[in-house]
């Protein structure tokens, strides 16, 4: 059961199109030695308002942007205190108005190690301290410098730490992460020298601002049902640009504040279903999006 | 238990290393910067080259300089010694920056301003698009909207002013022949290579003032920015020990006089009527009379008035209005004709099967909103080629004036053609585009016309690179098909017309007395 729970928590996370985003790479539940599972999740995320800088904006030449993602997610316990997590989303994103063609294809593959470094018993409760390290790279050389894009195209290193508290069916997890994003090469030569840009230059290579991320999640996990609510704050760490004419999209400073919830139901044996919902409260250079997801989990 | 500890320590070590690596490594992106050089040829007879607006260098005047043994000059020398002896980091950076080339840098500045001002006005709540106001350039929308025709014109006048001013400079340099400060006094240690020619007037000061005057008129909201650039450029010549103060002030006077004459042409070249929207009704009626079944309509929401529908009346550089009408391309295929259907089907196929390489080409040449447009792109190509060839300031200016006037002629000719035929974009027949949809008729392709013209001129100047320039032009042209906003005939006919336009500039270059 716990394996299902872990997955149900994680798999709503990992697709990251331009205006979609995840609620963090992982949760605080460890997989267990030599145990594995696979999940397939479908999600749909829409927005008709996006933030130019931090100002909400509606573009009649864009309309409503809808991003659908099919996400494959696998986790394997390399040891009782070390998990390997791999994920790869396939994405389609399109606008209801204007002349932008839809973008579709594989986005980024992520591999991450999660390590439970400390495990304290506090009476009947347990507190664990975890560290995780992930690496993300584009599966294909998709166009990244556009309003509608599959992703930012950068190679990222994601480092984070988590405190996970569990008492009976109640749990509370807090985590903090830093995502280091590598530079990307555009299809074009940047024409505008913007002093506020991450790395003003006249070439095709530009920096992508790093971000920090904080997530708090709490809920109840029983044998058959799991339910949680969470809040996530992503904040640009370095100076970046705002969405604007001629400004490369990858150099934009992206941040957001989201809340959401997850429901997992165990069906039979090793099969479970999960559902997720999230909405954006505030943002910076990102869509004010609402997301619904559903998936099947198979595994031990 | 020991295993647990070792595993823990090992994992901790790896994580620590990665975290240090993540936060420690720099995100600096290094790029090679253009540097100063001694020209391969000083072009000492350039004072006799044919100018564009001046009838002769003596249209402008320059007083004779003080002799190098005069007390006035000696005082200037001593001041120069002080100024150039020790430099702050900022001063050193300014010397290096401007040392790359006066014409080169001001062209770069003009491109940057063009990109910054290439912003179509946003619509108001009542669905209207306010027109930028030259008298109030920083109000919303800012003036100018530096679209391709505007940018082509701004860069053309800049290059012509620089060229005419430098021809006059070379004329007076020869006449007055005052040696460079470091030649007069070996105590002056110049920071840049010194050419063996007269330093009166300072060619840098000439270019600075001529460029400043043109750009101040073209980008009136940028006066403080341009003031600072002008002052820094002038001062950098003193900091570098390259010119005494009177070299600079003479150059400033000369540059100012020439630019005033060039801007007098600009004021009466017809640009003020280029956005006259009242002409479109007649244009549409005319083209419908000639048989066009579906005219171009803005696809933006709300519909935006077309870009500069009357730009075709602007005065050309290298041929007259009658010639322009003569080289205007023939009519495009009728909507629904087999030729039209074939061209539209070709775009539908590209939309269905577009490769990543086709997308890259479309994006590389898009040069859309927020960019310095195709004319700026070709100015960059020309300036870099001339810099690589270590051209003198006057030959660099000649190159950019030939390319720049050809590009403005291309803009005028192409815009005349676009509004003469008022032909719909493929988006009126259901195609998408990711490169930005230009808000004016399709036929002929502006990119193709600009690129054909510039590539022909550059191939004449740098024959050994002709294949490369033509390949670039062809790629720019076909990029508009990959971007799905032009039919093949828009591109091919535009390219052919552009080449004709370029050949007029090439012919002028052959006859300008440079022997180049």
Ordered list of secondary-structure elements with their pairings:
The complex is a heterodimer of chains A (300) and B (516).
Chain A: H1 2-10, E1 36-47, E2 50-52, E3 55-57, E4 65-79, E5 82-95, E6 103-106, E7 108-122, E8 125-138, E9 156-167, E10 170-181, E11 184-185, E12 205-206, E13 211-221, E14 225-236, E15 255-266, E16 271-284, E17 290-299
Antiparallel strand pairs in A: 1-4, 1-17, 2-3, 4-5, 5-6, 5-7, 7-8, 8-9, 9-10, 10-13, 11-12, 13-14, 14-15, 15-16, 16-17
Chain B: H1 2-24, H2 71-85, H3 89-99, H4 102-116, H5 148-176, H6 181-184, H7 203-218, H8 223-239, H9 245-267, H10 280-289, H11 321-327, H12 338-353, H13 356-364, H14 373-388, H15 393-421, H16 446-461, H17 466-482, H18 488-510
Provide structural commentary.
The complex is a heterodimer of chains A (300) and B (516). In chain A, strands 1-4-5-7-8-9-10-13-14-15-16-17 form a 12-stranded antiparallel β-barrel. In chain A, strands 2-3 form a two-stranded antiparallel sheet. Chain A has one helix at residues 2-10; strands at residues 36-47, 50-52, 55-57, 65-79, 82-95, 103-106, 108-122, 125-138, 156-167, 170-181, 184-185, 205-206, 211-221, 225-236, 255-266, 271-284, 290-299. Helices cover 3% and strands 56% of the residues of chain A. Chain A is mainly β and 300 residues long. The radius of gyration of chain A is 19 Å and the shape is globular. The longest helix of chain A has 9 residues, at 2-10. Chain A has one domain (2-299): monomeric porin ompg (Porin, Beta Barrel), CATH 2.40.160. With 516 residues, chain B is an all-alpha fold. Chain B folds into 2 domains: 46-63 and 80-267, Vanadium-containing Chloroperoxidase, domain 2 (Orthogonal Bundle); 279-511, Vanadium-containing Chloroperoxidase, domain 2. Chain B contains 18 helices and no strands. In chain B, helix 5 packs across helix 9, helix 7 (203-218) runs antiparallel to helix 8 (223-239) and helix 7 (203-218) packs parallel to helix 9 (245-267). At the A-B interface, strand 12 of A face helix 1, helix 4 and helix 13 of B. Chain A: Keywords: Signal. Chain A: This is Outer membrane beta-barrel porin/alpha-amylase. Chain A: Residues 1-22 form the signal peptide. Chain B: InterPro entries: Br/Cl_peroxidase_C, PAP2/HPO, PAP2/HPO_sf, V-haloperoxidase. Chain B: Residues 403-498 form the Phosphatidic acid phosphatase type 2/haloperoxidase domain.
